[in-house]
Amino acid sequence: MDSSTNGGDLEVGGRWLEDSRRWFEGALERFLPHTDLGPPALAEAVKYALLGGGKRVRPAIVRLLGGAGADPAALEAAAVAVECIHTYSLVHDDLPCMDDDDLRRGRPTVHKAYSEATAVLVGDALQALAFEACGGASRGAAAMTVALARAGGGAGMVGGQILDLEGEGQDLDLASVQEVHRTKTAALLGASAELGALAGGAEGARVAEARQFGLALGMCFQAMDDVLDVTGDAATLGKTPGKDVGAHKGTLVAAVGLDAARLEAAQRASEARSHANTLGLGPVGLGLIELLLRRKS
Amino acid sequence: MDSSTNGGDLEVGGRWLEDSRRWFEGALERFLPHTDLGPPALAEAVKYALLGGGKRVRPAIVRLLGGAGADPAALEAAAVAVECIHTYSLVHDDLPCMDDDDLRRGRPTVHKAYSEATAVLVGDALQALAFEACGGASRGAAAMTVALARAGGGAGMVGGQILDLEGEGQDLDLASVQEVHRTKTAALLGASAELGALAGGAEGARVAEARQFGLALGMCFQAMDDVLDVTGDAATLGKTPGKDVGAHKGTLVAAVGLDAARLEAAQRASEARSHANTLGLGPVGLGLIELLLRRKS
After folding, report:
1. How far is residue B239 from each of residues B180, B220, B235, measured CA to CA in Å?
2. Residue B76: C-alpha distances to residues A143, A193, B58 (Å)
3. What average pLDDT is seen over chain A?
4. Pick the CATH number of B7-286 from 3.40.50.300, 1.10.600.10, 1.10.287.130, 2.40.240.10
5. Closest chain B CA to residue A137
């Protein structure tokens, strides 16, 4: 174990994640009444997707990078924005023409609970909602909008989904798997950190450092996902272990083997720690990294 | 014919539309190299959708409302943003689970030319691109982002699509049809005018007046669409006349009859003229209204 981390950090990280989750649910409750979600059939399905639980990791990253001096309203807007983008991506990824999943967090996916057309439109509405939130942020709105659009668009998350679909049934090499991880997952965690830093009034190099922290955290997160797909058990994982390998998705484990995949996760965690130290994120930052690295599901 | 309009206005409007179309194709050519569209498979399909022609009515409205004092870069950003939103909505509306169309402007729709998954992702990437453009605008970026997100989201365009799908096979009354028209079509034309005004440095009441102009223009446009669906011929219409009535879509003609539908279009045109006069848009504004009112397709 890295000498800079210990069980205390892990506990601090866990508490941060739980506090942030509660803070975020409150932020959503404050945000939603001020916006018009549209016709009842749409509004209900949007809420079904958005209020369906989840660990709210991205808002926790926003909150961490905002720091003590963050503008509270801008911080909430940024957290709502990144979680809306994440949620829309899950709704669209679950569609029959994409990953075709019937269950998400133990509940029917949006297209199962409502209809395919509704699921497409819920995703579209959530993406618009994300930009309504960050465009209305009381600090850094324009910079937040551009950062989120790039991370969530063709060069980021959406591009990653195309690469992931293209990679099915293929033997991907390490660089190709890393490119999928960077775009599909890490880009949005990078943007979460960036938006948090902007809400905190950061500029220039500190914003870029925040994004690097989020990116490294995202790469670690996704590497662990591929490891857990092989080593996790169904009960803690909430899905069938080996599902991705079985579907011939180009995973890190398929590309380089289990030990090298674990090493990749550890290296990315180490990178994230280095950025956390530069940013002065303290025990919470280190604890959050440990949590992601050691998670069982 | 309204005494405030004449053949000269019509010609001026036509020239404006054609000049604006050329200006907009240039704006796209200037914008696209500065952004990363993502992996080649996605970038190609995004360009297929975005560069597939069209009258570029929304950018023409942006340009008109920007006026002589508009910031050129902000005006281009606004035009790219509204057209990206419009284009993504067409790609998603054409999907099998939505309107299930195989052809768009005489070419295979995106899901036919590529795949359903690609079409979902192309739409998603185009929405992100819209916000990348307006978030990066050199003037009014934050206000543009919020206006576009509201007009394009659940309370606007996306909500209109849900209402339209719900209305299939039902007898809708006038108010319900108007609500579909307002949300599905007019909201984005309202935002086009609003973004143009913001790029022109307008504030407060003038921005609201611009939005009202665009909304009235959109209501007129959509009313004429329903009239042409019944009276147009296939050659000029580019689609089968009576298609919407045949599909039991809740059209204006089905709700109130052909004559009352024509009257509704004329009344909305009159509203638009009144806003155009308040805004001082001159013969170009009046000509653009005439063009939409008298179009044959």
Report:
1. 21, 20, 8
2. 18, 30, 12
3. 92
4. 1.10.600.10
5. B142
**DSSP reduced 3-state for A104:** strand
Lowest mean pLDDT across A16-30, A214-228, B5-19, B273-287: B5-19
CB contact under 8 A, A125 and B158: yes
Residue B29 makes CB contacts below 8 A (sequence gap 6+) with none
DSSP string of A202-269, one letter each residue = --HHHHHHHHHHHHHHHHHHHHHHHHHHHH--HHHHSS-TTHHHHTT---HHHHH-HHHHHHHHHHHH
Sign of CA dihedral A203, A12, A138, B80: positive
CA distance A86 to A176: 22
Separation in Å, CA B271 to CA A6, A76, B296: 69, 40, 21
Q: Compute the residue count for chain A.
A: 297
Does B194 have pLDDT greater than 90?
Answer: yes
Per-residue model confidence (pLDDT) at position B171:
87
The one-character DSSP state at B185 is I
Sign of CA dihedral B120, B121, B122, B125: positive
Q: B239 with B210: CB under 8 angstroms? A: no
Vertex A19 angle, CA A288 and A6, to 5°: 30
Interface test with A, best of B86, B116, B150, B158 (most A CBs within 10 A): B158
Q: CA B130 to CA B35: how far, in whole Å?
A: 11
pLDDT number for residue B2: 45
Predicted pLDDT at A2 = 45
CB contact under 8 A, B162 and A42: yes
Chain B residue with the nearest C-alpha to that of A96: B117
Per-residue pLDDT of A239-297, as tens digits, reads: 555 666 555 578 999 999 999 999 999 999 999 999 999 999 999 999 999 998 888 76
A7-289: CATH superfamily: Farnesyl Diphosphate Synthase (1.10.600.10)
Please tell me the distance from the alpha carbon of residue B37 to that of residue B46, in angstroms, as a whole number. Answer: 8
Distance from CA of B137 to the nearest CA of A (A): 8
Whole-angstrom Cα distance, residue B45 to residue B55?
20
Q: What angle do helix axes A7-31 and A72-93 make, rounded to 10 degrees?
A: 90
Q: What is the pLDDT of residues A3-40, one digit of tens each?
A: 445 678 889 999 999 999 999 999 999 999 999 999 99
pLDDT at B142: 98
Tokens matching residue B172: 């809708």
Report residue B26 as tokens.
Answer: 């240039």
A118 contacts on B by Cβ (under 8 Å): 162
Which of B92, B115, B155 has the CB atom closest to A124's CB atom?
A: B92
B111: distance to nearest CA of chain A, Å? 11
The identity of residue A211, as a single letter, is R
Q: What is the signed CA dihedral for A97, A100, A106, A112, rounded to 10 degrees?
A: 50
Residues B122 and B84: beta-carbon distance below 8 Å: no
